[in-house]
Specification:
alpha+beta, Alpha-Beta Plaits, about 20% strand, four-stranded antiparallel beta sheet, about 170 residues
Length: about 170
């Protein structure tokens, strides 16, 4: 147990700490009031210049006949060779990576046909197709090479089919 002397010392210390804290937090006199507006004249500090010297303008040359300059050190042959190698690499590919808008996915054929019909009626410019991969039916619309290309049509489809999503897909090369 603590002695009475310790309680007294602690209570005095507590009172002094509290008083010091209140004194430190006390509001001070405001620097300025609404009636006093600070104004300072700094015009004497601005530099002054005497008249500036006139700037001479150079005459603009008149456009003369354009001379033909033959191209030296062209890389056309090298580019042709690189393009041929790229074509050879892609000759076997039948598909390219792209995006389609998936309107419906489910196991009921009737609902898939109804979604395709609704899409054909409301947005005839989009070519809708129904794909069956066992056991699901999917209704997809549009073929796009990038998400940015698909965005305009995706917004229009989303108004009619709120659950429509933009999915990556393999697009056939024609």
């Amino acid at each position: 147990m603590m002695k009475k002397e310790n309680y007294t010392f602690l209570s005095v210390l507590f009172c002094l700490g509290t008083g010091l804290l209140l004194w430190a937090c006390a509001g001070s006199k405001p620097v300025s009031t609404a009636q006093e507006i600070y104004v300072e004249d700094v015009s004497k500090l601005k530099p002054t210049f005497s008249s500036l010297p006139a700037i001479e303008t150079l005459p603009v040359p008149i456009a003369s006949e354009k001379k033909y300059v033959p191209a030296n050190n062209t890389i056309n042959a090298q580019l042709k060779q690189i393009q041929d190698s790229i074509d050879y690499f892609y000759v076997g590919r039948k598909f390219v990576d792209g995006f389609t808008i998936q309107v419906y996915v489910g196991q009921k054929k009737e609902e898939a046909m109804q979604a395709k019909k609704s899409l054909d009626i409301n947005l005839p410019q989009l070519k809708a197709e129904m794909v069956f991969t066992q056991p699901t039916f999917k209704v997809k619309a549009g073929r796009y090479y990038s998400q940015l290309d698909a965005q305009k049509d995706y917004v229009n489809v989303k108004r009619i089919f709120p659950n429509a999503i933009l999915v990556p897909d393999k697009l056939p090369i024609q």
